[in-house]
Amino acid sequence: MKVQNYELAKKLRHELHQHPELSNEEVWTKNHLMEFIKANTNLEIVDKGNWFYAIYKADADKPNIAFRADFDALPMDEGIELPWASKFPGKAHKCGHDGHAATLAAFALEINQEGADKNIFFLFQPAEETGDGAIQCVEFIKEHNIDEIYAYHNMSGFPYKSVALKDGTIMCASKGMTIHFEGVPAHASQPETGINPSFAIGNILGAIPKFTSPQNNKGLVLCTVVQIDVGEKAFGLAASKGDLRMTIRAFYEEELNRLQENLERFAIEQAEQFGLKVSFEYCDEFPETLNHKESADKIRLAAKHKGMELVEMKEAFRPSEDFGHYTKLTKGALCFIGNGEDYPHIHTTEYDFRDELIEVGVELFKGLAKL
């Protein structure tokens, strides 16, 4: 990677870090990235409102290869002293999407300067953290007949600058699930005259281990209770409304769907038994992130050609990523680039993206573009 491009990308990363924006609010971020591409390349830029992409055109008969970066931040404080610290309390790039976006922008500079024998698409995506960014962009895959799509995520726990990946599912499918019950209020001294949802919620909690048992599933299935909100803080009033909020998660999307169905069916049974009304809400929905073996093998080959350490993952990561929406429509793969075994983890106060990973990501992408 050219030194001048690295310095430009590092400066860009620091600027993005100083101006974090939450999912679907990334107006300044998107515009700043577009201006960077305009100022430093002659690539075609397509503005899609919340997101955009740039295109390097080689020849109409050549393969169409896409590379994706996310650019949203997290709703948390910076918490550490940095020369490029966030200027906005309660917002910070604590997942490294500033680094991902800077990497893709730097890769665009290198391809613009050096050329390629494929049509290269540089996709800048919003709202990965909430799971509704990639789904906004999937039209791009069919519109441009994308043959393959690639991305990376920085990740602690792997050797510094290593490339980690696996075939098949590399990150779990997940979603936030809320079960809402509504009964009938009563005086606390006469609970029998009302309908209290507490017992139904308690029975659901007792049923969760059966639904998530390894004996009943081929892969990891988790149901994590994140909040139980029942009744009011009024000791003279029996509870009549209740919400059970959970994150449901699985290695395989089909098993996530089955868990959801089991929970819904059981909740409906409880509602009928106790005379409750029941409803369901969902948020932060992520597909499983599935790597196609052919594409994962190309990452392996590109890493090998670049002399990068390769880590073969034994099982999928439990967290989720919305990149899987793309690989439902075309071939592709996502990999991790290591921050170091002992480096602070993403989504923690102590974390900041390591600038040196920009060059690793650019060189890996350049290697993929040549295969």
UniProtKB/TrEMBL annotation:
Gene Ontology molecular functions: hydrolase activity; metal ion binding
User: For Mn(2+), which residues are the binding ones?
Assistant: 95, 97, 129, 153, 347
Q: Which cofactor does it need?
A: Mn(2+)
Question: What range does the record give for the signal peptide?
Answer: none
Keywords in alphabetical order: Manganese, Metal-binding
Q: Does the keyword Manganese apply?
A: yes
Q: Report the cofactor remark.
A: The Mn(2+) ion enhances activity.
Q: Which InterPro entries match?
A: Amidohydrolase (IPR017439), Bact_exopeptidase_dim_dom (IPR036264), Peptidase_M20 (IPR002933)
What protein name does the entry list? Amidohydrolase
Species lineage, top-down? Bacteria, Bacillati, Bacillota, Bacilli, Bacillales
